[in-house]
Amino acid sequence: MTVSFDQPRTEDPEHWYCANMVGVPVPLLGSTTFNRCLRRVTIHGTRETHPGLFRLLARCGTQAEAAEVFAHYMELEFGLGPPPEDAAVGRRRGATSYVELLRGWGVDSNSAKAAVLKGWVESRFGLVPVFHKERLGLFPSPGWIAYLAEKTDPRFHDNCIHQQFDLVYEFCQWSIRRFKAPGPRFVRLWRGTNNVEEQLVEGDARTRHCIVRLNNLVSFSASKERADEFGDWVLETEVPTVKLLFFPGLLAGTVLDHEGEYLVIGGRYKVRAHHGWF
Fold first, then answer.
1. Where are the domains of the chain?
2. Alpha helices, DSSP H, located in 93-141
3. What are phi and psi for residue 239, nearest 5 degrees?
4. 68, 142, 220, 246: least surrounded by Cβ within 10 Å?
5. What is the rounded distance in angstroms from the CA atom of residue 250 to the CA atom of residue 172?
Protein backbone atom coordinates (compact mmCIF):
# COMPACT_ATOMS: atom_id res chain seq x y z
CA MET A 1 0.00 0.00 0.00
CA THR A 2 1.44 3.40 -1.00
CA VAL A 3 0.13 6.07 1.38
CA SER A 4 0.76 9.77 0.86
CA PHE A 5 1.79 11.82 3.87
CA ASP A 6 -0.29 14.71 2.62
CA GLN A 7 -3.21 14.66 5.09
CA PRO A 8 -6.17 15.18 2.72
CA ARG A 9 -4.92 12.44 0.37
CA THR A 10 -4.21 10.07 3.26
CA GLU A 11 -7.85 10.32 4.26
CA ASP A 12 -8.95 9.43 0.74
CA PRO A 13 -8.18 5.80 -0.23
CA GLU A 14 -8.87 6.63 -3.88
CA HIS A 15 -5.34 8.09 -4.11
CA TRP A 16 -3.37 5.36 -2.41
CA TYR A 17 -2.54 2.84 -5.12
CA CYS A 18 -0.29 3.34 -8.12
CA ALA A 19 0.10 -0.20 -9.52
CA ASN A 20 -2.01 -3.22 -10.44
CA MET A 21 -1.91 -6.37 -12.56
CA VAL A 22 -4.01 -5.22 -15.52
CA GLY A 23 -1.77 -2.57 -17.05
CA VAL A 24 -4.24 0.30 -16.73
CA PRO A 25 -3.38 3.27 -14.46
CA VAL A 26 -5.55 3.06 -11.36
CA PRO A 27 -6.93 6.63 -11.61
CA LEU A 28 -8.08 5.84 -15.15
CA LEU A 29 -9.44 2.40 -14.26
CA GLY A 30 -11.58 3.88 -11.49
CA SER A 31 -12.86 6.79 -13.57
CA THR A 32 -16.04 7.43 -15.52
CA THR A 33 -13.84 7.96 -18.60
CA PHE A 34 -12.67 4.36 -18.48
CA ASN A 35 -16.28 3.18 -18.24
CA ARG A 36 -16.88 4.51 -21.76
CA CYS A 37 -13.57 3.70 -23.47
CA LEU A 38 -14.32 0.01 -24.26
CA ARG A 39 -10.78 -1.06 -23.44
CA ARG A 40 -10.28 -4.78 -22.86
CA VAL A 41 -8.72 -5.81 -19.55
CA THR A 42 -6.83 -8.97 -18.68
CA ILE A 43 -5.00 -10.03 -15.51
CA HIS A 44 -1.39 -10.49 -16.53
CA GLY A 45 -0.20 -14.06 -16.77
CA THR A 46 -3.50 -15.80 -16.06
CA ARG A 47 -4.33 -17.09 -19.53
CA GLU A 48 -0.68 -17.84 -20.22
CA THR A 49 -0.54 -20.01 -17.08
CA HIS A 50 -3.70 -21.95 -17.96
CA PRO A 51 -3.73 -22.39 -21.76
CA GLY A 52 -5.34 -25.82 -21.46
CA LEU A 53 -8.47 -24.36 -19.89
CA PHE A 54 -9.04 -21.93 -22.73
CA ARG A 55 -8.39 -24.61 -25.36
CA LEU A 56 -11.13 -26.69 -23.73
CA LEU A 57 -13.47 -23.70 -23.52
CA ALA A 58 -12.98 -22.96 -27.21
CA ARG A 59 -14.78 -26.23 -27.99
CA CYS A 60 -17.90 -25.26 -26.03
CA GLY A 61 -21.03 -24.24 -27.87
CA THR A 62 -23.11 -22.90 -24.97
CA GLN A 63 -22.61 -21.03 -21.72
CA ALA A 64 -23.88 -24.03 -19.75
CA GLU A 65 -21.34 -26.32 -21.40
CA ALA A 66 -18.53 -23.85 -20.75
CA ALA A 67 -19.57 -23.53 -17.10
CA GLU A 68 -19.30 -27.29 -16.64
CA VAL A 69 -15.86 -27.35 -18.27
CA PHE A 70 -14.70 -24.48 -16.05
CA ALA A 71 -15.99 -26.13 -12.87
CA HIS A 72 -14.26 -29.42 -13.74
CA TYR A 73 -10.98 -27.67 -14.52
CA MET A 74 -11.06 -25.71 -11.26
CA GLU A 75 -11.83 -28.89 -9.31
CA LEU A 76 -8.78 -30.63 -10.76
CA GLU A 77 -6.44 -27.64 -10.69
CA PHE A 78 -7.16 -26.59 -7.10
CA GLY A 79 -8.33 -29.84 -5.53
CA LEU A 80 -11.86 -28.60 -4.92
CA GLY A 81 -13.62 -31.94 -5.04
CA PRO A 82 -15.20 -33.53 -1.96
CA PRO A 83 -12.82 -35.37 0.43
CA PRO A 84 -12.57 -39.15 -0.07
CA GLU A 85 -15.19 -41.20 1.76
CA ASP A 86 -12.58 -42.91 3.93
CA ALA A 87 -11.00 -39.64 5.06
CA ALA A 88 -9.99 -39.79 8.69
CA VAL A 89 -12.26 -38.22 11.26
CA GLY A 90 -10.93 -34.84 12.23
CA ARG A 91 -9.48 -34.10 8.80
CA ARG A 92 -8.89 -30.39 8.31
CA ARG A 93 -11.51 -28.36 6.50
CA GLY A 94 -11.66 -28.67 2.74
CA ALA A 95 -9.53 -26.44 0.55
CA THR A 96 -10.93 -22.95 0.08
CA SER A 97 -13.03 -22.57 -3.05
CA TYR A 98 -14.04 -19.57 -5.15
CA VAL A 99 -17.64 -20.85 -4.91
CA GLU A 100 -17.46 -20.80 -1.11
CA LEU A 101 -16.36 -17.16 -1.11
CA LEU A 102 -18.93 -16.08 -3.69
CA ARG A 103 -21.68 -17.65 -1.62
CA GLY A 104 -20.25 -15.96 1.47
CA TRP A 105 -20.50 -12.62 -0.33
CA GLY A 106 -24.13 -13.38 -1.13
CA VAL A 107 -24.87 -13.89 2.56
CA ASP A 108 -22.97 -10.82 3.80
CA SER A 109 -20.85 -8.44 1.72
CA ASN A 110 -19.13 -7.30 4.93
CA SER A 111 -18.06 -10.76 6.06
CA ALA A 112 -14.49 -12.07 6.25
CA LYS A 113 -15.08 -13.96 2.99
CA ALA A 114 -16.17 -10.72 1.35
CA ALA A 115 -13.04 -8.99 2.70
CA VAL A 116 -10.92 -11.56 0.85
CA LEU A 117 -12.75 -10.67 -2.37
CA LYS A 118 -12.20 -6.95 -1.80
CA GLY A 119 -8.54 -7.72 -1.14
CA TRP A 120 -8.34 -9.57 -4.46
CA VAL A 121 -9.69 -6.47 -6.24
CA GLU A 122 -7.03 -4.38 -4.46
CA SER A 123 -4.27 -6.72 -5.57
CA ARG A 124 -5.35 -7.14 -9.18
CA PHE A 125 -7.01 -3.81 -10.09
CA GLY A 126 -5.39 -1.47 -7.55
CA LEU A 127 -8.73 -0.12 -6.31
CA VAL A 128 -8.90 0.31 -2.54
CA PRO A 129 -12.17 -0.38 -0.71
CA VAL A 130 -13.94 2.58 0.80
CA PHE A 131 -16.30 0.53 2.97
CA HIS A 132 -16.13 -2.67 5.00
CA LYS A 133 -18.56 -2.79 7.92
CA GLU A 134 -17.91 0.95 8.24
CA ARG A 135 -16.58 3.73 6.06
CA LEU A 136 -12.82 3.36 5.62
CA GLY A 137 -11.09 6.73 5.77
CA LEU A 138 -7.99 7.75 7.69
CA PHE A 139 -5.37 5.00 7.97
CA PRO A 140 -4.67 3.49 10.44
CA SER A 141 -8.01 3.18 12.19
CA PRO A 142 -9.97 0.39 13.91
CA GLY A 143 -12.02 -0.08 10.74
CA TRP A 144 -8.93 -0.52 8.58
CA ILE A 145 -7.26 -2.86 11.06
CA ALA A 146 -10.37 -5.06 11.17
CA TYR A 147 -10.57 -5.14 7.37
CA LEU A 148 -6.87 -5.98 6.96
CA ALA A 149 -7.19 -8.81 9.48
CA GLU A 150 -10.18 -10.28 7.65
CA LYS A 151 -8.83 -9.98 4.12
CA THR A 152 -5.70 -11.91 5.16
CA ASP A 153 -7.55 -14.48 7.29
CA PRO A 154 -5.50 -17.70 6.88
CA ARG A 155 -8.69 -19.79 6.76
CA PHE A 156 -9.24 -18.51 3.22
CA HIS A 157 -5.66 -18.36 1.91
CA ASP A 158 -4.74 -22.03 1.98
CA ASN A 159 -5.46 -22.72 -1.68
CA CYS A 160 -4.29 -19.94 -4.03
CA ILE A 161 -7.61 -18.11 -3.65
CA HIS A 162 -6.43 -15.04 -5.56
CA GLN A 163 -5.37 -17.21 -8.48
CA GLN A 164 -8.78 -18.89 -8.41
CA PHE A 165 -10.48 -15.52 -8.80
CA ASP A 166 -8.05 -14.52 -11.54
CA LEU A 167 -9.49 -17.45 -13.48
CA VAL A 168 -13.09 -16.56 -12.57
CA TYR A 169 -12.54 -13.07 -13.96
CA GLU A 170 -10.85 -14.32 -17.14
CA PHE A 171 -13.57 -16.94 -17.64
CA CYS A 172 -16.22 -14.25 -17.18
CA GLN A 173 -14.57 -12.06 -19.82
CA TRP A 174 -14.08 -14.99 -22.20
CA SER A 175 -17.77 -15.91 -21.84
CA ILE A 176 -18.93 -12.38 -22.56
CA ARG A 177 -16.86 -12.16 -25.73
CA ARG A 178 -17.80 -15.66 -26.88
CA PHE A 179 -21.55 -15.62 -26.21
CA LYS A 180 -22.19 -11.83 -26.33
CA ALA A 181 -24.12 -11.99 -23.07
CA PRO A 182 -24.96 -10.15 -20.92
CA GLY A 183 -23.11 -7.52 -22.99
CA PRO A 184 -21.33 -7.53 -25.28
CA ARG A 185 -19.95 -4.13 -24.21
CA PHE A 186 -22.35 -2.70 -21.63
CA VAL A 187 -25.09 -3.96 -19.38
CA ARG A 188 -27.73 -1.76 -17.71
CA LEU A 189 -27.89 -2.52 -13.99
CA TRP A 190 -29.47 -1.19 -10.80
CA ARG A 191 -28.20 -0.98 -7.23
CA GLY A 192 -30.19 -0.21 -4.09
CA THR A 193 -28.61 1.95 -1.37
CA ASN A 194 -29.50 3.98 1.69
CA ASN A 195 -26.40 6.19 1.81
CA VAL A 196 -26.23 7.79 -1.61
CA GLU A 197 -25.09 11.14 -0.15
CA GLU A 198 -21.91 9.54 1.21
CA GLN A 199 -21.08 8.18 -2.25
CA LEU A 200 -21.62 11.41 -4.21
CA VAL A 201 -18.66 12.89 -6.07
CA GLU A 202 -20.44 15.31 -8.41
CA GLY A 203 -24.02 16.51 -8.75
CA ASP A 204 -27.08 15.99 -6.61
CA ALA A 205 -29.03 12.75 -6.41
CA ARG A 206 -32.27 14.76 -6.33
CA THR A 207 -31.55 16.03 -9.85
CA ARG A 208 -31.37 12.40 -10.95
CA HIS A 209 -28.00 12.55 -12.76
CA CYS A 210 -24.81 12.47 -10.69
CA ILE A 211 -21.45 10.75 -10.22
CA VAL A 212 -20.87 8.39 -7.30
CA ARG A 213 -17.83 6.52 -6.07
CA LEU A 214 -18.68 2.93 -5.31
CA ASN A 215 -16.78 0.42 -3.23
CA ASN A 216 -14.04 -1.51 -5.05
CA LEU A 217 -16.42 -4.47 -5.43
CA VAL A 218 -20.20 -4.04 -5.39
CA SER A 219 -23.38 -5.96 -6.15
CA PHE A 220 -25.88 -4.89 -8.81
CA SER A 221 -29.11 -6.35 -10.11
CA ALA A 222 -30.56 -6.56 -13.60
CA SER A 223 -33.96 -5.71 -12.08
CA LYS A 224 -34.88 -2.25 -10.81
CA GLU A 225 -37.65 -3.78 -8.72
CA ARG A 226 -35.21 -6.20 -7.10
CA ALA A 227 -32.70 -3.43 -6.38
CA ASP A 228 -35.44 -1.35 -4.79
CA GLU A 229 -35.65 -3.93 -2.00
CA PHE A 230 -32.15 -3.00 -0.81
CA GLY A 231 -32.48 0.74 -0.19
CA ASP A 232 -34.48 3.93 -0.45
CA TRP A 233 -32.43 4.99 -3.46
CA VAL A 234 -31.84 2.99 -6.63
CA LEU A 235 -28.82 3.84 -8.77
CA GLU A 236 -29.13 3.03 -12.47
CA THR A 237 -26.04 2.86 -14.67
CA GLU A 238 -24.44 1.22 -17.67
CA VAL A 239 -21.62 -1.02 -16.48
CA PRO A 240 -18.89 -1.86 -19.00
CA THR A 241 -18.67 -5.63 -19.27
CA VAL A 242 -14.90 -5.51 -18.64
CA LYS A 243 -15.78 -4.59 -15.06
CA LEU A 244 -17.88 -7.70 -14.46
CA LEU A 245 -16.47 -10.41 -12.21
CA PHE A 246 -19.69 -12.43 -12.12
CA PHE A 247 -23.07 -12.47 -13.82
CA PRO A 248 -26.04 -14.85 -13.38
CA GLY A 249 -25.52 -18.08 -15.29
CA LEU A 250 -21.74 -17.74 -15.50
CA LEU A 251 -21.02 -20.71 -13.23
CA ALA A 252 -22.51 -24.17 -12.92
CA GLY A 253 -24.90 -24.74 -10.04
CA THR A 254 -26.54 -22.12 -7.85
CA VAL A 255 -24.12 -19.27 -7.09
CA LEU A 256 -25.81 -15.94 -6.31
CA ASP A 257 -28.39 -16.77 -8.98
CA HIS A 258 -31.41 -16.64 -6.67
CA GLU A 259 -31.11 -12.83 -6.56
CA GLY A 260 -29.92 -12.29 -10.11
CA GLU A 261 -26.80 -10.68 -8.67
CA TYR A 262 -23.94 -9.19 -10.66
CA LEU A 263 -20.52 -8.53 -9.09
CA VAL A 264 -18.96 -5.35 -10.46
CA ILE A 265 -15.50 -3.84 -10.09
CA GLY A 266 -16.12 -0.42 -8.55
CA GLY A 267 -14.78 3.11 -8.85
CA ARG A 268 -16.59 6.18 -10.13
CA TYR A 269 -19.81 5.77 -12.10
CA LYS A 270 -22.25 8.12 -13.74
CA VAL A 271 -25.66 7.11 -12.45
CA ARG A 272 -29.30 8.04 -12.63
CA ALA A 273 -30.68 8.14 -9.10
CA HIS A 274 -34.26 7.10 -8.37
CA HIS A 275 -36.06 7.67 -5.08
CA GLY A 276 -39.33 6.18 -3.97
CA TRP A 277 -41.01 9.57 -3.68
CA PHE A 278 -40.05 11.04 -7.07
1. 7-80+94-179, 186-275
2. 98-107, 112-125
3. -95, 125
4. 142
5. 7
